[in-house]
Specification:
Layout lengths: L8 H6 L2 H10 L21 E5 L6 H10 L16 E7 L11 H10 L2 E12 L7 H20 L5 E7 L8 H7 L10 E5 L21 E5 L4 H12 L3 E6 L4 H10 L3 E4 L7 H13 L2 E6 L14 H24 L3 E10 L3 H4 L5 H22 L4 E7 L5 H4 L3 H9 L9 H12 L10 E4 L8
Parallel strand pairs: 1-2, 2-3, 3-4, 4-5, 6-7, 6-9, 7-8, 9-10, 10-11, 11-12
Bound molecules: nicotinamide-adenine-dinucleotide (NAD).
Nicotinamide-adenine-dinucleotide binds next to helix 7, strand 7 and helix 13.
Length: about 450
């Protein structure tokens, strides 16, 4: 697995005093060192401020759910004048008209300069309800522009997100708060997350802080190396039983991984005609079913369209898109994917912004967004959530193969001025795989450091 910033020579040079002087003089980016989650770390280390505009209907439920994940916030007026801040949660869901938006600069202006490195800013908005007043819809939609711009203004690894919460989902926020406020979301910024758009479980969501995936059976495809391997390790760390899938040529890597994560493995090509049936049978017979399916297996075969032969097009579209759709539908139809479960697709920023030489790949990855759109509603009736992650530039063998200059551009062209790590994608999948995320469906979460492409 070719990973990590260790290979990132630019970042190690920029970390030295000479490098920093060069960076300032030449206007080169000086990538901040991102904090990442480690076992036993609390959700947030530092001061957490919670505030709200107007009626602030979410402040109280958020305070309760923060307490449940071990976070004790304070109100902005209670801060010492020079107190540093690690996280801010602002309830903007009560903003009902254009004038009300002035509450945003009023609240944030005094706070932004006091944000610590890798601080977390979270805005909460209201999911547009049918028949809502136009002024209210306009004001709530406006929050997205504020969020994305503030995210671009952040320095030193700080991130900003907007969470839109449906009326019925006020008690369903704990797992989302735990992800977005913690170092688990190191490489996620400028995102809009919807909670409750496809229904909400009857009982308030609970979130196991130590092992959020305890007791969950999770299938990860393409798990032998790269991002998939990292997913298997992170999901195991969080308490899941992991079943790893990869091609037969990767059987020995699968075996080693499965020993490490005390899990199970299946060597098969996800595009094989009987793959859905074989996977279903294995999961039912050995594990009694499955709770989470992560469609990570994917390939690239880059060529401009004029040279795009069918042997480059077909496997990319079938592995990346055809197989995830067939496998998901079969597991849902047979009930092997249990109620309370989750499907996580792996898209890409190429599927959002397009990419030169990747018509095949971008087609397949945009199709994964279609899979989320198409299946979120019917799956909700079976109490299954459907989301996708869309990685940006992640340091793996796939991106190590990109020519140097292009690779350097890919790394830097985002708000955090560096590539992400496989673990960053894996942490996002961990959040979407947790039982506490049962109201989080229909989302495509970019893990891209707020790439400049396709925002
Ligand atoms: P990788 O090539 O390192 O790993 C992919 C794994 O999938 C391999 O182990 C491979 O053997 C397996 N696989 C391929 N075809 C398969 C098949 N037919 N059946 C079963 N397994 C198969 O790639 P990666 O960089 O870890 O990427 C993982 C996923 O993330 C892919 O879907 C990729 O498109 C996506 N992604 C990666 C990046 C990035 O920057 N690396 C960016 C965006 C999206």
């Amino acid at each position: 697995m070719g990973h990590t910033g260790v290979n990132d020579r630019y970042q190690s040079v920029m970390g030295t005093p000479v490098g920093r002087i060069l960076a300032t003089r030449l206007g080169l980016p000086d990538p901040p060192r991102l904090e990442r989650w480690s076992a036993d770390s609390p959700v947030v280390t530092g001061t957490v401020v919670v505030g709200g505009a107007h009626t602030s209907p979410l402040v109280e439920p958020v305070q309760q759910q923060l307490a449940a994940i071990g976070v004790s916030p304070c109100a902005a007026p209670g801060l010492a004048p020079d107190q540093q801040i690690k996280a801010v949660v602002f309830d903007a869901s009560g903003i009902a008209d254009v004038d009300g938006l002035a509450a945003l600069p009023e609240f944030f202006r005094p706070l932004v300069r006091r944000l610590e490195p890798c601080a977390r800013v979270l805005l909460l908005g209201a999911m547009p309800a049918a028949g809502a007043e136009p002024a209210r819809v306009v004001a709530q939609r406006a929050l997205e522009g504020f969020t994305r711009s503030l995210a671009r203004e952040m320095r030193r690894g700080a991130t900003v997100q907007l969470v839109l919460v449906a009326e019925a989902a006020h008690q369903q926020l704990a797992s989302t708060l735990a992800f977005l406020l913690s170092p688990r979301s190191a490489y996620v910024s400028g995102q809009v997350v919807r909670v409750g758009s496809h229904g909400v479980p009857d009982s308030p969501a609970t979130h196991d802080r130590e092992q959020p995936l305890r007791g969950r059976v999770v299938l990860v495809t393409g798990a032998a190396r790269g991002i998939g391997e990292s997913m298997a390790r992170v999901l195991h760390r969080d308490g899941a039983t992991v079943i790893s899938v990869d091609v037969a040529a990767q059987a020995s890597a699968l075996q080693t991984l499965s020993r490490d994560v005390e899990g199970d493995w299946i060597a098969l090509d996800v595009t094989a005609a009987d793959a859905p049936q074989r996977i279903a049978r294995h999961l039912r017979d050995r594990h009694g079913g499955v709770d989470v399916v992560v469609h990570n297996a994917g390939i690239t075969r880059d060529k401009r369209l004029a040279s795009m032969r069918s042997d480059l097009w077909n496997p990319v579209v079938d592995i990346n898109l055809g197989a995830p759709l067939r496998i998901t539908e079969h597991l849902l139809d047979t009930g092997v994917l249990r109620p309370g479960g989750a499907v996580v697709g792996v898209s890409s920023i190429a599927g959002i912004a397009g990419n030169d030489g990747q018509t095949n790949y971008a087609t397949s990855k945009a199709g994964i967004i279609g899979l989320v759109d198409a299946l979120a509603e019917p799956a909700a009736r079976l109490q299954v959530i459907v989301n996708a992650v869309a990685p940006g530039f992640i340091e793996t063998q796939m991106t190590a193969a990109v020519p140097l200059l292009l690779r350097e551009a890919g790394r830097r062209m985002n708000s955090l001025t560096q590539g992400g790590l496989p673990v960053d994608v894996a942490e996002a999948v961990g959040w979407l795989a947790a039982p506490g995320s049962a109201a989080v469906s229909g989302n495509v979460i970019r893990v891209c450091g707020q790439s400049l492409l396709g925002a």
